[in-house]
């Protein structure tokens, strides 16, 4: 009985350090750990599982940003053109980048997963630039850029 408890404790410690060790190799350790710890699958995932969790976070953030964009049409009609562009960009993240990355990693071809993850950050930047310095989405843009770069680093560990 005691032995079982000891082995289980050791397993939990090594699982915990899996997230830690993976996140140490990303540009934002704190963000990486907080994203992975917030998902119940994180504690038992391997690196490709951790990458899939992070891609899911990209999806959640893109969905949230798209909702925000849709709400801004009424509040800021003068921004319509930039909002249209952003709407297209975030739909690209949701309909192309995310599914492409999930499929690539699930099938064990992470190189193609990296492309989708990088593109999510690029799409967010292009959206932001459309407002020419007066973006109402800056903090969401930065979050996407940050998640994208953390996720990219994790996907690269699979290459
Ligand atoms: C994104 O990362 C930068 C650099 O680490 C940090 O200064 C900034 O607060 C982060 N922004 C968001 C919204 O997460």
UniProtKB/TrEMBL annotation:
Keywords: Disulfide bond, Signal
Keyword Iron carried by entry: no
Pfam families given in the database record: PMEI
SMART domains: PMEI
InterPro entries hit by this protein: C/VIF1 (IPR034087), Invertase/methylesterase_inhib (IPR035513), PCW_Enzyme_Inhibitor (IPR052421), Pectinesterase_inhib_dom (IPR006501)
Pectinesterase inhibitor domain location: 14-154
SUPFAM superfamilies documented for this protein: Plant invertase/pectin methylesterase inhibitor
Entry's family note: Belongs to the PMEI family.
Name under which the protein is recorded: Cell wall / vacuolar inhibitor of fructosidase 1-like
Chain's gene name: LOC104777706
